[in-house]
Amino acid sequence: NTVQSITDTNVLEGDSMDQDVESPVAIHQPKLPKQARDDLPRHISRDRTKRKIQRYVRKDGKCNVHHGNVRETYRYLTDIFTTLVDLKWRFNLLIFVMVYTVTWLFFGMIWWLIAYIRGDMDHIEDPSWTPCVTNLNGFVSAFLFSIETETTIGYGYRVITDKCPEGIILLLIQSVLGSIVNAFMVGCMFVKISQPKKRAETLVFSTHAVISMRDGKLCLMFRVGDLRNSHIVEASIRAKLIKSKQTSEGEFIPLNQTDINVGYYTGDDRLFLVSPLIISHEINQQSPFWEISKAQLPKEELEIVVILEGMVEATGMTCQARSSYITSEILWGYRFTPVLTLEDGFYEVDYNSFHETYETSTPSLSAKELAELASRAELPLSWSVSSKLNQHAELETEEEEKNLEEQTERNGDVANLENESKV
């Protein structure tokens, strides 16, 4: 055994040496982004195990995309105002305090240098000496005078004199720069406070999307609502299908975006969002769900991103709310529970039932197969495909019952003939 293990070790070493000799240059495969590697089609992906679908947009509306290897960071400084507004509150408040503190210290140092160079520090107790700033006897008093000048407090204890031209020039510069700093920082804080992001949190989407029949057509539906009494003006809804695809030329497009029509041509995408509304997408030949059936839906790797936009009535600022649905959140053969009831003189919305659904009779075929079935049967357009399928099922059961009766009659005749022959 020892000899055999040594021999196997030598063989492995020889194979590795042969590999090193034959391939002295390592061939590196092109490095794809992580999302592209995860979304490779099944026929070119090496990992065929079932994996969890990675969201492009989370349920709370935040985009699940991180920007890496951004080398041109100077572009953020060119738009410093937007950069400060996009920062988190803790960093924004820290920068707010630091900017004012640094400017006060900077100009306080200059005021102290002017007093030190002119010799005001050496003639503090000399009543015949006219200093640049009265009652300025050190750096702390210079710092306090800088704060009083920039914030225009003016306590009256420390005052600049007319015998100091350099102090007058510095006073003008600090007043102008102080006004600019105030306008910039206060404007930044005002914009950050008035952002409509919190308003978007009161716009809710149903946790699931459903697919069922509506007016004889297969439709994809989801529900939206507004929790506030102040309405969203000019509200509009959009939907996108996020799904990787491969072109006929072999090009792989990760996370390809396709429009989902939710009433753009009929005006149904423009909402009067006073009470919860059910947004419907008719699955027709232009729909990306045209060939998807109930059995095929769980196998698809797709995501539906819905976007609700409008202006806040109180501020007039544009507000946007987002959400998404993956295949596990799309229920086939369900409808939404009604939430609007008529009370004594008003309508009441029950948001406890906002996300609830109930099962309904829905064919499991795709919209394409239903259209082909309707065309072969030459059904009128006003007929419901689902009702026709139920009629076919009833006819089949009746035929089976007739066949059973005929078979029993034949069996009875055969039994009678056998009895007569025995007799």
From TrEMBL:
The keyword Flavoprotein does not apply. Residues 57-196 form the Potassium channel inwardly rectifying transmembrane domain. It holds the Pfam family IRK_C. The chain crosses the membrane at residues 93-117, 167-191. InterPro entries: Ig_E-set, IRK_C, K_chnl_inward-rec_Kir, K_chnl_inward-rec_Kir3.2, K_chnl_inward-rec_Kir_cyto, Kir_TM. One of its GO terms (biological process) is regulation of monoatomic ion transmembrane transport. The record marks N182 as: Role in the control of polyamine-mediated channel gating and in the blocking by intracellular magnesium. It is found in: Membrane. GO terms for molecular function: G-protein activated inward rectifier potassium channel activity. It catalyses: K(+)(in) = K(+)(out). It is a multi-pass membrane protein. Residues 390-423 are annotated as: Disordered. GO terms for cellular component: monoatomic ion channel complex; plasma membrane. Residues 203-372 form the Inward rectifier potassium channel C-terminal domain. Keywords: Ion channel, Ion transport, Membrane, Phosphoprotein, Potassium, Potassium transport, Transmembrane, Transmembrane helix, Transport, Voltage-gated channel. Its main location: membrane. PANTHER family: G PROTEIN-ACTIVATED INWARD RECTIFIER POTASSIUM CHANNEL 2 (PTHR11767:SF19), INWARD RECTIFIER POTASSIUM CHANNEL (PTHR11767). Belongs to the inward rectifier-type potassium channel (TC 1.A.2.1) family. KCNJ6 subfamily. This is G protein-activated inward rectifier potassium channel 2. It comes from Propithecus coquereli. The lineage of its organism: Eukaryota, Metazoa, Chordata, Craniata, Vertebrata. The gene is KCNJ6.
